[in-house]
Specification:
- The longest helix has 53 residues.
- The protein has one helix and no strands.
- The chain is mainly alpha-helical.
- The relative contact order is 0.05.
Length: 104
């Protein structure tokens, strides 16, 4: 139930063909070229960006940056206003408590 499910791997294996060798004189022997397997073909769709879609992505990214920036600035402003109001309330309460202690 909780075991991960992995996607099936590509089963296509590159095939290497074996060629029969004939006996040739030592002067004509060349080093065999290394066998390089072909890269497996991916069945994933490719993304093609046109100039219009690139412009849309840039504009969308800029809009996201502006919206996130506006939200963060407004939150910072809310914290600053709350801090100032708490400071003002503290000063008023201090003066009231001071006046009450003088009256006794």
């Amino acid at each position: 139930m909780f075991t991960p499910k992995y996607p099936a791997q590509d089963t296509a294996q590159p095939s290497a063909t074996v060629q029969p060798q004939t006996t040739v004189p030592a002067s004509a022997v060349q080093a065999p070229a290394p066998v390089v397997p072909a890269a497996p073909v991916s069945n994933r769709p490719t993304i093609q960006l046109t100039p219009g879609s690139t412009l849309a992505l840039v504009a969308g990214g800029g809009a996201v940056v502006l919206v996130v920036g506006a939200v963060l600035v407004s939150m910072l402003l809310a914290v600053a206003i709350t801090g100032v109001s708490v400071a003002v309330v503290a000063v008023v309460l201090r003066s009231l408590v001071k006046d009450l202690q003088k009256g006794r």
